[in-house]
Amino acid sequence: MVQSHDGHLTIKDVARLAGVSRSTASRVLTNHPRVSATAREAVQRVIAETKYRPNHVARALVLGRSALIGVVVPSIATAFYAELIRGIEKALGDEFTLAIVSTEDDEHLERRALERLYEARVAGLIVSTLRHQSQDVFGEDIPLIFANRAPTEPRHSVVTYDNFRMGYLATSVLLQHGHRKIGYVSASLDLPTVWQRREGYLQAMRDAGIAPASSWSATGDITMQFGVQAGRRLVEEKTEITGLFTDSEVVAIGVMEALWQVGLAVPRDLSVVACDDSPLAALTPVSLTTVNAPRAMVGELAGGLIKEAIHAGRPLDARTVVLPVELIVRNSVAPPRRQADLGRRSHGRPT
Fold first, then answer.
1. What structural domains does the chain harbor?
2. Any idea of the CA torsion for 29, 32, 33, 39, to the nearest 10 degrees?
């Protein structure tokens, strides 16, 4: 076996043993399409026989970038982003390693995360959190894909799903069951995905000839705690709604808990529809009717686009991919009963 002076096989050695040029051997390692089947087979045979492992540090020094793909998400604690990341990993395979950063939906942490990833000379960036609309923080020398969230006028490719349709479908299923007073509980409206869903909700209500009262809506964090707070507020303020659309099933579970604490139940006293459709939705005491967000597919397509851009070695034309969504009917929606507001219906925790 041919080895370098420090005892490790180099890419130059692999190329020599395979009878190809060094650049050809490098293209095989990066799965570049412009390699003949014969050359690819020869290089792969040498790699298998010698158990060659690339020196990623040396490769980064030569290319000016690493084999890392930076992934910036608002949280790693939710099923939504776990599945999105799994989709990215599926698309990238063994060629790249993910450097995942969670920003907790904080603009300062988001900017700092991006700065650090640029300093690390990552091969590409997949950004799934955007608390600000400025794109000046993104350089032009590293490929970038927005996954899920994106600026209103993105200069880079975007992979997302139809958030407007999500809001419209969720509201429509409540309308179809006879609800007229439908509330909306959401995350902050400065997130593009959230206000798009809200626009879908409002359009469905307009199409039904209904003008929602401001007291029917609440905004906050994408947490169960906020859901509990929102649910308590609906009861304490004697809100007259009979149906509720939340843009997160985590928030919906919080609302359901708040109702249960005062003797109310879903869907008997309040019908609820949520977004996302993680496995959690089917496991709640009353399984949630949801609108599915194809997050794994978003990740897979974003991973494929970033890989394509890296292999091209040049900026690609920005494109936008919007995936369809689907209503998943379960047990949290029923026709409204003729009854008083939520406050008058409550009577304390059931025993």
1. 11-54 (1.10.260.40), 63-162+295-324 (3.40.50.2300), 163-293+329-345 (3.40.50.2300)
2. -40
